[in-house]
Amino acid sequence: MNPEPAPDDTTRTARADRLARLVEEYRALSADSDRKREIIAELDGNTAAQPFLVSVLADTGEYDLARVECATVLRLWPPADPDLRHRAGRALLAALNDPEEDLVRQYAAMALGPYASDDPALAEALIAAGESEEDPLVRACARSALEEAGLA
Questions:
Q1: Virtual CA dihedral for 124, 125, 128, 134, nearest 10 degrees?
Q2: Alpha carbon of 115 to those of 13, 64, 84, 125, 129: distances in Å?
Q3: Contact present, 44 and 50 (Cβ < 8 Å)
Q4: Dihedrals φ, ψ of 149, to 5°?
Q5: At the N or C end, where does the chain have fewer CB atoms within 10 A?
Q6: Please, are residues 37 and 65 in contact by the beta-carbon 8 Å criterion?
Q7: The predicted structure's pLDDT at residue 14
Q8: Is 152 helix (H, G, I), strand (E, B) or coil?
């Protein structure tokens, strides 16, 4: 006879199943569906979803508002795993440097604060963005992130 699963196991399994369902739904949606942004928002605080969030943020072909939402979630919940944290920082850096997506760039700049002290290249990119005259909103977001990181 199998023992009943512990409540933590049941909860963990339910969260993993929900994550899998949301990711599957996300991938089935059309490229510009606003439901994509809603799904990302539903994953807020779910550390198991962080690799997925990094992959969405890093994909320049993804829906821009979904990428914005990913940047926001990754700012609020930076990955604890060093490798994933590095990948998240690099995805944010790539988004910051994407000339096609001003809104994504703004949110990426804001989100880099928690990552800037981990990687000198990220700090340098934020400093450059904070001094740039190209986009005043990106500049303001970068300066805010530098203050958050204690680098301003």
A1: 180
A2: 30, 21, 11, 11, 15
A3: no
A4: -80, -5
A5: N
A6: yes
A7: 87
A8: coil
DSSP string, 111-140: HTHHHHTT-HHHHHHHHHHHH-SS-HHHHH
Residue with tokens 């990106």: 138
Cα 72 versus chain centre, distance = 6
Encoding tokens for residue 8? 């933590």
Q: What is the mean pLDDT of residues 82-94?
A: 97
C-alpha 133/C-alpha 138 separation (Å) is 9
Q: Are 68 and 107 in contact (CB under 8 A)?
A: yes
Distance from C-alpha of 30 to C-alpha of 13, rounded to nearest angstrom: 28
Phi, psi at 44, each rounded to 5°: -55, 125
Q: How far apart are CA 78 and CA 45, in angstroms?
A: 10
* pLDDT digit string, tens, across residues 8-24: 667 888 889 999 999 99
> How far apart, in Å, do the first and last CA atoms of the chain sit?
62
**What is the spatial distance between Cα 118 and Cα 123, in angstroms, rounded to a whole number?**
8
Binned at pLDDT 50, 70 and 90, residue 99 comes out as confident
pLDDT at 13: 87
